Each structure stands twice: as structure tokens, then as C-alpha cells.
Amino acid sequence: MQILQLISSARGAESFSTRLSQDIIDKLLAAHPGSTVVVRDLAQHPFPHLEEAHLQAYFAPAESRSPEQQQAVRHSDEAIAEVLAADVLVIGSPLYNFTITSSLKAWLDHLTRANITFRYTPAGPEGLIIGKKVYVALSSGGIYSEGPMQPYDFATPYLRWMLGFLGMRDVTVARAEGVKLPELQATALQKGIDSVTI
After folding, report:
1. In DSSP terms, which residues pair with 119 in a beta bridge?
2. Does domain 2-194 have CATH number 2.60.40.10?
3. How far apart are CA 150 and CA 64, in angstroms?
4. Taken in order 52, 55, 61, 66, is the CA torsion positive or negative?
5. Fewest CB atoms within 10 Å of the CB: 44, 155, 183, 190?
6. Model-level pTM?
7. DSSP per residue over 35-100, as a string?
8. Which tens digit of pLDDT belongs to each residue from 89-119?
9. What's the rounded Cα separation, in Å, for the pair 135 and 173?
């Protein structure tokens, strides 16, 4: 089995989302010995935000792209190839200002390509990335899975919808939440780990 780990936190080793995603990977490796892990650190090596050059390159026929367009499409091609090669994706996503990080959004923008990762049909859009299992390791300073702040978790519904749009509908969300709350921070990570069954 091939596992693709996506890191999007800027906090390095201190990141709860990265630690939770690593614990999920450890469970996967224990259940599937011999599996390989490919790590894509979007914080250390961010994808560029979409610009006109990227969009022009996406819609230009591959055989007629200029050298500049070939360079512009490189990140997208790499992201798509890594996802297609993976059996399982483990996405570490801290909650920054109530949503995902800009680095994770940029990666999703490069992954989303008409007629490559999705297509429009008479019945509506159809995702073309199928047969993948996705784990989202979400961390947050407060509690967003329930209670008064639940409506302000824009990360979880967005990721579920966007991944589903691309064909990845088997999504499990694990949460290390309350990491900034004194009464919860000591157990937040373990609670997230314990919630995941492989």
C-alpha cells in the first residue's frame, strides 16, 4: 500500500495536526506492513497560488505548451501523480482562522483539473479520483465538533465536499481539538488517535 501524507501546518514538530496524522500513519503501517509513505510538506515547500499563467497552461494542449507553460503546469502534474499513485491519503490540517491553511488550499487548486481529476457530464460533475481512502487529521485550539463553535468549522465541510467533488468520498476525520484549553490539552491528541480505527 502507498500512503501519501500531506502536512500543512507551519508549526513543524509542535503541530498537533502533523502529530495526529503521523499517529494515523503508524496505525496504517502496523496494519499493513511493508507499505510506503510519501511525504508532501506543503508548509516547507508550498505550491504557488494560482495565477493566470497556471490557468493558461491547464487549458493549453500539452503538445503545444510553451516552456513557460510547461513549468507552470509542473506543480499540478506532480500533485495529481502523487494522489493517483496513493492508496491512502492522510491530510494534516490545522484550523487556521476557522478554515484550512492557504498552503492546503493552493494544493487543492493545483489538484483540481477539468477532464483530469473531474469532468462535467449531463448528470453533473463527476470526480475521477476514485478508490482512495482519506484520513483528515484536524487540530484546533477550541472545540468545533459540537457546541456553540461548531458552525464556525469551515474546514471539515469544505474538505469533505472538495474531496468528494474529486471522487474521494471515503473520508474519515479525526480531531485533536481543545489543544489550547487547559482542561483538555493534555488528552486532546490521544483522544484523536483513539477515534481512528484502521
Report:
1. 126
2. no
3. 48
4. positive
5. 183
6. 0.95
7. -EEEEEETTTSPPPPP-HHHHHHHHS-GGG--HHHHHHTHHHHHHHHHHHH-SEEEEEEE-BTTB-
8. 999 999 999 999 999 999 999 999 999 999 9
9. 6
